[in-house]
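Fold this: DUF1798 family protein
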Amino acid sequence: MQQEQKQELHTTIQLLKKYNDESLQNFTTIAQDPEYTPDFYEEVKPFADRMKETADAWKPLAEQWIIEEKPTYFYLKQIDDTHENMCISSIRSFQSDTKKKRFREMIQSIDYILTGMEEQLHL
């Protein structure tokens, strides 16, 4: 994997970690105020679109990194699962009926993969 591709992967990882933190913050806000209903077109859709766009850019880079670099404890299936979890969490973070434990575990799982990749990505 070329250096500029590694740098792009690193940049998308950092952005996804920021969005993952935002998902948790959105969820916390909704949980604290059950009366609050986010505006779909002003809040939910723009955030979900940003997350999906970034996750879609990250996925092929992450897969290429795994195929070429063969990092320890990282597999293609994890990339698929993490991509799917990021897309789901960006929407679920705005839903008041989201299960707290399950949502937090999803956020932790995403963070674990992204942080682990960041640590093993030798720039």
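The chain has a mean pLDDT of 95. The chain is about 80% helix and 0% strand.
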